[in-house]
Design a protein that fits this description.
The complex is a heterodimer of chains A (113) and B (119). With 113 residues, chain A is mostly beta strands. Helix content of chain A is 0%, strand content 46%. In chain A, the strands form two sheets. A five-stranded mixed beta sheet of chain A has the order 1-9-8-3-4, with no helix packed on it. Chain A starts with 8 loop residues before the first strand and ends with a strand. Chain B contains no helices and eleven strands. In chain B, the strands form two sheets. In chain B, strands 2, 4, 5, 6, 9, 10 and 11 form a seven-stranded mixed beta sheet that branches. Chain B has a four-stranded antiparallel beta sheet with strand order 1-3-8-7, with no helix packed on it. Classes of the chains: A mainly beta (113), B mainly beta (119).
Chain lengths: 113, 119
């Protein structure tokens, strides 16, 4: 499985934008970039995913580098409820890869009032 | 949106007993579900892939006789921790993905997790 590298932790102030980086230099052409987040004592929650183009949804934006070796999750206005561990995951969509998500260590985001 | 429900959310059992955890996809059929385990302050570790109507596929190092997985229907997968010991105490999480449509990438949905404590 192609690996991702994320900072262990980041801090943000409430109502300010947050940029969470992810490096995936060994990404292959069949890897989608997924982001999930996990609040304390809960299962992970889907945030966003993309392949090559930047993506936006109601939760966040995903900026993907042109060479696809890195990506950035953008929370436009952090709230206290956004404090969580954010996981950047590559998912190989080839049928023989099983469709599983392999979690790395993630980035623990803390949001200060 | 699609929901995955896990039950129970919390269970305490005595050492040597078995515990069953259920994972249900509430509004979609899931031919494949995934089981994870998470220890405190650590990331999720994939244990096995549960396939409806066939045997589960276990990740390396996971004992299939200890962690029995049954996926008897398109909406239910169960994980049974047999002869539980204190070191099996962990947060167990299941996941399912909405059915595949050609040309689309699917997101995964996760259960709320089951906190198992073996005493």
């Amino acid at each position: 499985d192609a690996k991702t590298t994320q900072p262990n932790s980041m801090e943000s102030n409430e109502e300010e934008p947050v940029h969470l980086p992810c490096n995936h230099s060994t990404i292959s052409g069949t890897d989608y970039i997924h982001w999930y987040r996990q609040l304390p004592s809960q299962g992970p929650e889907y945030v966003i995913h993309g392949l090559t183009s930047n993506v936006n949804n109601r939760m966040a934006s995903l900026a993907i580098a042109e060479d696809r070796k890195s990506s950035t999750l953008i929370l436009h206005r952090a709230t206290l409820r956004d404090a969580a561990v954010y996981y950047c995951i590559l998912r190989d969509i080839r049928p023989n890869q099983g469709g599983k998500l392999i979690f790395g260590q993630g980035t623990e985001l803390s949001v200060k009032p | 949106g699609a929901v995955v429900s896990q039950h129970p959310s919390r269970v305490i059992c005595k050492s040597g007993t078995s515990v069953k955890i259920e994972c249900r996809s509430l509004d979609f059929q899931a031919t494949t579900m995934f089981w994870y385990r998470q220890f405190p302050k650590q990331s999720l570790m994939l244990m096995a892939t549960s396939n409806e109507g066939s045997k589960a596929t276990y990740e390396q190092g996971v004992e299939k006789d200890k962690f029995l997985i049954n996926h008897a229907s398109l909406t239910l997968s169960t994980l049974t921790v047999t002869s539980a010991h204190p070191e099996d105490s962990s947060f167990y999480i299941c996941s399912a993905r909405i059915p595949y449509f050609v040309g689309t990438e699917r997101k995964a949905f996760f259960g709320q997790g089951t906190r198992l404590t073996v005493v």
